[in-house]
Design brief:
globular, Alpha-Beta Plaits
Amino acid sequence: MLLRHVVCFKFCDGISESDQQRVEREFCALAGKIPVVDKLEWGINNSAEGLHKGLTHCFLLTFKTEKDRDSYLVDPAHLEFVKLIRQFTDDAMVIDYWAK
């Protein structure tokens, strides 16, 4: 089984395209900076259901153990990224689950 860490967020109104791309780039860079990240994938919402509640970006990180996930959460690279996104996002949602 693999531990999934799902992060979705909504950018602030008026964010520039370059700042949005910076956030996307910096999030993706975490996989190379933090060895416990087994996989990282992401995308922009394109659901036709209209239930996204303003959350537009979804990042899915995979970890092998809860210890790895917990290590990621306190890693300096992750904490620095959290500081970055707080200035560009209005809302976020995080959920973790064991894939079955």
